[in-house]
Amino acid sequence: MTQFRGAFTALITPMKESGKIDYDGFRRLIEFQLTEGIDGIVPLGTTGESPTIDEDEEEKLIKIAMKTAGGKVPVIIGSGSNDTKHMVSYVQRAKKHGADAALVVTPYYNRPNDDGLLRHFEAAAKPGIPIIIYNIASRTGRNIPTPLMKEIAKIPGIAGVKESSGDIGQMGDVIREIAIPRKAAGDKFWVLSGDDSLILPLSSMGGDGVISVVSNLLPAKVKDLTKAALEGDFEKARALHYELLPLMKAAFVETNPAPIKQALSWAGLPAGPARLPMGKLAPASEAVLQKALKDLGLIK
Predict the structure, then answer these.
(1) Residue 45 neighbours by CB under 8 Å, 6+ apart
(2) Active-site positions?
(3) d(Cα 207, Cα 190) in Å, to the nearest integer?
């Protein structure tokens, strides 16, 4: 069984100034991640600007990701939609291309009730590829409470959750009430943080790591932090946590992925602008981001 444990990068999608995708840059970013020792990659998530990428572009990006990763690390393909029919087609596409899992977000804007959510994830699991639930109420308007998550986790093929609720108490409940009993039964329910700043506390409670934004820029550092936390080396993990915390905050000074794309550009990595409706960073936000990068010695 594929291990969804460690530091996974929620990859950006680099763009040219024209707004077209920089496919060669995308390949180079994945090669950079592999060289730096990342544990896995997640293309076509929110950080990859999936809402503004059309299906032909997505197909090309998936092919590049799968070929470049070459089985060296797990690849989790973003496959979410607020239309269940479209979501299922994206999950089928991820399976067709040999992805290790599909990341399926809570349907946004529709704000479905419990029955609708349960049936949405039942449909996601039917194609037969492991499903990682993406719980992020700040973007979708709908949190998945732990009692409902327990019901969804009973669906065969639901492999885990990217927890971006921001509620460390809820995350602990998911571990205590779902992950620990599943492990005791000889099964696994992976719990990954969707917030870089919560890698340390989530891992200390028995979580499995992170799907990270900051690791686009510093994959080795984020992996070291995650590994130390998972192995119980909390002195090292704390030191890395506090070293990276200003950048973790600066990466969300405005809506992701605009700040991390700007940081990558300043650091000389392929990134380019974000597509509309994402705009340029405000001068005050740029100043916060620049200070974080300067303090880490990433720019002068």
Answers:
(1) 10, 11, 78, 103, 134, 211
(2) 134, 162
(3) 7
Whole-number pLDDT of residue 1 = 64
Please give the model's pTM, rounded to 2 decimal places: 0.97
Cβ atoms of 175 and 191 within 8 Å: the answer is: yes
**CA 282 to CA 253: how far, in whole Å?**
10
Q: Which of 254, 244, 241, 243 is nearest to 288 (CA)?
A: 254
Per-domain boundaries in the chain: 6-231
Bond into 273 cis (ω within 30): no
Q: Provide the pLDDT for residue 2.
A: 85
Within 8 A by CB and 6+ apart from 234, the residues are 200, 204, 228
**CA–CA distance, 22 with 35 (Å, rounded to integer):** 20
Residue 34 pLDDT exceeds 90: yes
In this predicted structure, the answer to whether residue 75 has a pLDDT above a threshold of 70 is yes
Evaluate whether the domain defined by 6-231 bears CATH number 3.20.20.70: yes
List, for residues 135-175, the tens digit of each pLDDT value.
999 999 999 999 999 999 999 999 999 999 999 999 999 99
